[in-house]
Amino acid sequence: MIPGVLTVAGSDSGGGAGIQADLKTMLALGVHGMSVITAVTAQNSLGVQGAWELPVEAVRAQYRSVVDDIGVQAVKTGMLASAELVETVAELLAGTDAPAVVDPVGVSKHGDPLLAASALDSVRTKLLPVATVATPNLDEVAQLTGVRVESEEGLRRAAAAVLAYGPRWVLIKGGHLPGDAVDLLTDGSEEHWLRAPRHDNRHTHGTGCTLASAIAAQLAKGRAVPEAVAAAKEYVTGAVAAGFALGEGIGPVDHGWRFRGDA
Ligand code: PXL
């Protein structure tokens, strides 16, 4: 059986992030990708030109259609836009047995808002508690917990602050710190430090979506969280290394990097 993975996220018309990144990642990692679209963005390599949320009923209906008939082995969440959508998705996840990877998306690579400020409290108190793995970057950690990290030693403090909201595991992404791309995965008792060399490549659009979807894909294949995250980090590191220019601005990571050369 091919494991099924569901992404609950926004559409990126440029194809580098959001739903499009998630489905490409799932294909590359050998699982069947399915989608609940929460919002549509008009977007390219220069930024987000517009964003439109879907009605709560449309999000709930997509989710029920997939989960009640097909079933899912893992779920990933990304852009949720509003407090109402965050709370709806949190409630849906609470009623689903499959592991949930929550990427608490706040702003795009260009700084465009993808989550209303009024939704932050719902992320803290409704969404994080139902996450198997939460994957904030340091800006999202600061926004959600007030903890500001400027060096690797601070990653532990960030992890503790996020774990206090109740996710089973947290992966703090230290990629915006200088030096190696270092992330800390912990459940509060085990610590796993994931280190990858920094690739001097500005075409990194979609990195966060890709990592979270890769974790969900690995969990769906039955891996335990630490092994799933390590395999996902290896995949995203290759995708960043192969990121390519597109348009005038920031290009995407290459979801198909493992296929190149033998296609
Ligand atoms: O990487 C965060 C993200 C999530 N979802 C959508 C996005 C982006 C970043 O651009 O466009 C739809």
From TrEMBL:
Source organism superkingdom: Bacteria
Reaction catalyzed: 4-amino-2-methyl-5-(phosphooxymethyl)pyrimidine + ATP = 4-amino-2-methyl-5-(diphosphooxymethyl)pyrimidine + ADP; 4-amino-5-hydroxymethyl-2-methylpyrimidine + ATP = 4-amino-2-methyl-5-(phosphooxymethyl)pyrimidine + ADP + H(+)
GO molecular function: ATP binding; hydroxymethylpyrimidine kinase activity; phosphomethylpyrimidine kinase activity
InterPro entries per UniProt: HMP/HMP-P_kinase_dom, PM/HMP-P_kinase-1, Ribokinase-like
Assigned keywords, A-Z: ATP-binding, Kinase, Nucleotide-binding, Thiamine biosynthesis, Transferase
GO BP of this protein: thiamine biosynthetic process; thiamine diphosphate biosynthetic process
Associated pathway: Cofactor biosynthesis; thiamine diphosphate biosynthesis; 4-amino-2-methyl-5-diphosphomethylpyrimidine from 5-amino-1-(5-phospho-D-ribosyl)imidazole: step 3/3
Domain spans labelled Pyridoxamine kinase/Phosphomethylpyrimidine kinase: 12-254
GO annotations of cellular component type: cytosol
One Pfam entry name: Phos_pyr_kin
NCBIfam families assigned: HMP-P_kinase
Function: Catalyzes the phosphorylation of hydroxymethylpyrimidine phosphate (HMP-P) to HMP-PP, and of HMP to HMP-P.
Name of the protein in its database record: Pyridoxal kinase
Organism: Streptomyces viridochromogenes (strain DSM 40736 / JCM 4977 / BCRC 1201 / Tue 494)
Taxonomy of the source species: Bacteria, Bacillati, Actinomycetota, Actinomycetes, Kitasatosporales
